[in-house]
Amino acid sequence: MTATYLTTDQLASRIHYDSRTIRSRLKDSVLLEGVHYIRPFGGRKLLFVWEAIERDIANVSMGRGPLIPMANGGHAHG
User: Residues 5-21: pLDDT tens digits?
Assistant: First the structure.
């Protein structure tokens, strides 16, 4: 399975949010590191995983969220 990695500006364009909102309000509250985004090579740049974001947007809007990440890689339904 291949992942589609997006920059903050590309994600903002897809979900119709301002990139500042993604960085300040969504990152680390709704979008979680290791699930929804990564920091390649340990740097400051963020790359968002489109498939994970798309999946969780649909789950939350259908009343199946929120998901709480667990240490084993699974999710608890909160």
Answer: 999 999 999 999 999 99
**Which pTM value belongs to this model?**
0.74
In this predicted structure, what is the pLDDT of residue 71? 76
Report the sign of the C-alpha dihedral through residues 68, 70, 75, 76, in that order. Answer: negative
Instruction: Parse the chain into domains and list their residue ranges.
Output: 5-77
Parallel/antiparallel/unpaired status of strands 75-77 and 67-69: antiparallel
Residue 50, φ and ψ in degrees, nearest 5: -60, -45
78 DSSP assignment: -
Residues 49, 3 contacting (CB under 8 angstroms): yes
How many C-beta atoms lie closer than 10 Å to residue 39's C-beta?
Answer: 12
- Domain 5-77 is found in CATH 1.10.1660: yes
